[in-house]
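Title: [Solved] ADP-ribosylating transferase 3D structure

Original question kept below for reference.
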Amino acid sequence: MHEEDWIPVSVENCGQVRGPFYHGTRADLSVGDMLKAGFTSNYDESVVMNHVYFTSLPKGAGLAAELALGAGRPRVYVVAPTGAFEDDPNVTNKKFPGNPTRSYRSAQPLRIVGELESWELYDPEFILELRRRVQAGMGEIIN
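Solution (posted by the thread starter after getting help):
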């Protein structure tokens, strides 16, 4: 898709976007649990999140899970938005034209409807470099 063909996803037109959707974390959650805004970031415990973030790309959610803080294993959950959502403005048109990462955010909860057992992994060196950048205060690349 060319940038000029891209139609931004907003809370008004989010119904045009079909899942499945995924959320990556290290938290041990169950089907039926709700992911809600108002909790600390997966990447910086000093930041309270106003939105819950998700993607329609399993590999992207896997990257988020790999980078997340915590002792648990990386997990990718299949999630269903319970309300309106929009393109993640942290990556959409700031870092990448359009929304090639297929990243979204919602102020409304996401319901966990399943868990992926496997997904395409990134190169371990890439993960380490991103983790270093996040720890060095460049968390805006993924938050």
